[in-house]
Automatic annotation (TrEMBL):
<keyword id="KW-0963">Cytoplasm</keyword>
<dbReference type="InterPro" id="IPR049940">
    <property type="entry name" value="GluQ/Sye"/>
</dbReference>
<protein>
    <recommendedName>
        <fullName>Glutamate--tRNA ligase</fullName>
        <ecNumber>6.1.1.17</ecNumber>
    </recommendedName>
</protein>
<dbReference type="InterPro" id="IPR020058">
    <property type="entry name" value="Glu/Gln-tRNA-synth_Ib_cat-dom"/>
</dbReference>
<keyword id="KW-0067">ATP-binding</keyword>
<feature type="short sequence motif" description="'HIGH' region">
    <location>
        <begin position="10"/>
        <end position="20"/>
    </location>
</feature>
<dbReference type="InterPro" id="IPR001412">
    <property type="entry name" value="aa-tRNA-synth_I_CS"/>
</dbReference>
<feature type="domain" description="Glutamyl/glutaminyl-tRNA synthetase class Ib catalytic">
    <location>
        <begin position="4"/>
        <end position="306"/>
    </location>
</feature>
<feature type="region of interest" description="Disordered">
    <location>
        <begin position="113"/>
        <end position="140"/>
    </location>
</feature>
<dbReference type="GO" id="GO:0005524">
    <property type="term" value="F:ATP binding"/>
</dbReference>
<keyword id="KW-0648">Protein biosynthesis</keyword>
<keyword id="KW-0547">Nucleotide-binding</keyword>
<dbReference type="GO" id="GO:0005829">
    <property type="term" value="C:cytosol"/>
</dbReference>
<feature type="domain" description="Aminoacyl-tRNA synthetase class I anticodon-binding">
    <location>
        <begin position="336"/>
        <end position="468"/>
    </location>
</feature>
<feature type="binding site">
    <location>
        <position position="242"/>
    </location>
    <ligand>
        <name>ATP</name>
    </ligand>
</feature>
<dbReference type="InterPro" id="IPR020751">
    <property type="entry name" value="aa-tRNA-synth_I_codon-bd_sub2"/>
</dbReference>
<comment type="subunit">
    <text>Monomer.</text>
</comment>
């Protein structure tokens, strides 16, 4: 078996959306699983819509997800001369021809097809005419001389055998009248020249696969193995849209998802390995097989993604979560404010609080929000629930507790012993003291373990916050 070469070939007309990210992941995993290569091709032939910003967004999105490619990215537009050369080969073999049909004639063909209930297609009027008859006042397009009888069959690694009657596939345009290559032609020439052995992409390209197979045969080239994976749908079964989560990978980064968790979630959209849900990257590479990709559309579920991300957060090393925060903060709407507050002292406190913080957060954004108590200045703001906890009775408990804490050694164990001793002496449950304590220290009704909070904030800051609220 020859070495496997896959490719990911996005059009740089916007961000790297979640469906494209999964396609890239499947190509990457298949290449790594088989010991092959994955190449990156930027299909920038649409000059009006392709932008440098979109190219950067796609490359950054792949890098953030941890999807690497072999060699330098290939830019399709730069290869236009090679695409034209391939058409010259087809013309020389008689497998392509010049066509001078006008836009008006093509409109008339479409209208007639509509009236007769046929799919609109070119009627082949220049297929067998002598090019010498072509008008001199305009340049022709060049069309594929496609087979008109029989079938084009795709042996797809996911969809199985897919058959297209050739009568339903017309003589598609290879070169426009201005000499620019069409997408269909460019894809075939590039895949061939790049040595691509396996084309793995969305099943919305299945009809393209038939047309591209005809171009391969017209050029006398081997057709790559195809694998068309089902699209991703929303939870309601409709095609994935922005309201479902069809956002750019950068949006998931900014919402605080970890790249490893998003990768794990994406691999399970349409592929399975028994009942296993959580995979290390190496397990994904070891187990990935196109035979286990299903044919039905996968459903995107934010709740599942959030739950999985929570698992990854709890399992992550504290240092890795700090690195994730560093990567995230510059992209947040209040980045400048957050960065200004991230002093070395605050960073050290954040690191100390991490074991308690990560147990309660499903995203990095939520973790940062829960860590807000570290960054706020005195007197700290209280949310509604915290205010409700600081009743006159609660404040009185804090006032009587203060001397015990002032005398205590500043460790989680020692402060806990002081608070328990106070609650016992006062004849109240621990929660009756711990909840007002939490509200006064964090401004919220939920937080990491309260004795960890005392340790993280330190003696001076903790006692200052308690004095601000004590009755």
């Amino acid at each position: 078996m020859s070495d496997i070469v896959t490719r990911f070939a996005p059009s740089p007309t916007g961000f790297l959306h979640i469906g494209g990210a999964r396609t890239a992941l499947f190509n990457w995993l298949y290449a790594r699983h088989t010991g092959g290569k994955m190449l990156l091709r930027i299909e920038d032939t649409d000059r009006q819509r392709s932008t440098k910003e979109a190219i950067s967004a796609i490359i950054e999105g792949l890098e953030w997800l941890g999807i690497t490619w072999d060699g330098e990215p290939i830019y399709q537009f730069a290869r236009a001369e090679r695409h034209r050369q391939a058409v010259e080969e087809m013309l020389a073999k008689g497998n392509a021809y010049r066509c001078w049909a006008t836009p008006q004639e093509l409109d008339e063909m479409r209208e007639l097809a509509r009236k007769e209930g046929r799919p609109p297609r070119y009627d082949g009027r220049w297929r067998d005419r002598d090019p010498a008859e072509g008008p001199k006042d305009r340049d022709p397009v060049i069309r594929l001389r496609a087979p008109q009888t029989g079938e084009t069959v795709i042996e797809d690694l996911v969809q199985g055998t897919v058959t297209f009657p050739n009568k339903d596939l017309d003589d598609l345009v290879l070169l426009r009248s201005d000499g620019t290559p069409t997408y269909m032609l460019a894809v075939v020439v590039d895949d061939h020249d790049m040595g691509v052995t396996n084309v793995i992409r969305g099943d919305d390209h299945l009809t393209n696969a038939a047309r591209q197979t005809q171009i391969y045969r017209a050029l006398g080239w081997d057709v790559p193995q195809m694998a068309h994976i089902p699209l991703i749908h929303g939870p309601d079964g409709a095609k994935l849209s922005k309201r479902h989560g069809a956002l750019g990978v950068d949006a998931y980064r900014d919402m605080g998802y970890l790249p490893a968790a998003l990768r794990n979630y994406l691999v399970r959209l349409g592929w399975s390995h028994g009942d296993q849900e959580v995979f290390s990257t190496q397990e994904m590479i070891d187990y990935f097989d196109l035979a286990k990709v299903g044919r039905s559309a996968a459903r995107f579920d934010f709740q599942k993604l959030e739950s999985l991300n929570g698992q990854y957060m709890r399992a992550a090393a504290d240092a890795d979560l700090l690195a994730a925060i560093d990567a995230l903060v510059p992209h947040l709407p209040d980045a400048a404010h957050r960065l200004a507050r991230m002093t070395e002292a605050r960073r050290a406190q954040l690191a100390a609080a991490m074991p308690g913080l990560k147990e309660r957060a499903k995203t990095v954004v939520e973790l940062l929000d829960n860590a807000e108590f570290i960054f706020v200045a005195r007197p700290i703001p209280l949310d509604e629930k915290a205010t409700a906890l600081l009743t006159a009775e609660g404040k009185a408990h804090l006032g009587r507790l203060l001397p015990l804490l002032e005398a205590a050694e500043w460790t989680a164990a020692a402060t806990e012993a002081a608070v328990r001793q106070y609650a016992e002496a006062a004849g109240v449950k621990l929660g009756a003291v711990a909840q007002p304590l939490r509200a006064a220290l964090t401004g919220k009704s939920t937080s990491p373990p309260i004795f960890d909070v005392l340790t993280v904030l330190g003696r001076e800051e903790s006692l200052g916050r308690l004095r601000d609220q004590a009755g």
